[in-house]
């Protein structure tokens, strides 16, 4: 199977699933069409790891997704709860899903502490963004997948 025929792992919120922390979707019609055609696999690492919807907003504190995977940074909620273990578990489940489905790449939600490819919120819950990658995006890159952002 050539790369164009291989399915794409996509952030489930982009496929119209209400799985974001705020119980909303971020549906992208082209992504929804890919899922309907069987060319994309929707996946939410946070929900897969057992986090509820809705849930408190979370941001990476002390680094980015690569730092989280190395144990050098944490994923915290605005209430101060440490949800790092769930984010790491979800990232591992995303890699397993992508491998099992034969994906070569992923299309992920921007600015998410899980799925961001190039920019994340800065960990202060102030709405500011900075360069960085999310935990799941970092795990996928480490496993050899190409990742791109929805924006």
The largest sheet has its strands arranged as 2-1-5-8
Structural class: alpha/beta
Low-confidence stretches: none
Radius of gyration: 14 Å
Mean pLDDT: 96
As a percent range, the share of strand residues is 15-25%
Q: Outline, from the CA principal axes?
A: globular
Tell me the distance between the termini.
28 Å
List the helices and strands and how they pair.
Layout: E1 8-11, H1 29-36, E2 40-43, H2 45-48, E3 58-61, H3 65-69, E4 74-77, H4 84-101, E5 105-108, E6 119-121, E7 129-131, H5 135-142, E8 146-149
Parallel strand pairs: 1-2, 1-5, 5-8
Antiparallel strand pairs: 3-4, 6-7
Helix pairs in contact: 4-5
Structural summary, described in words:
The chain has 5 helices and 8 strands; from the N terminus they run E-H-E-H-E-H-E-H-E-E-E-H-E. It has 151 residues and is an alpha/beta fold. The chain has one domain (3-149). The strands form 3 sheets. It has a 4-stranded parallel beta sheet, sandwiched between helices. A hairpin with a 7-residue loop joins strand 6 and strand 7. Helix 4 packs across helix 5. The longest helix has 18 residues, at 84-101. The model has no long low-confidence stretch (mean pLDDT 96).
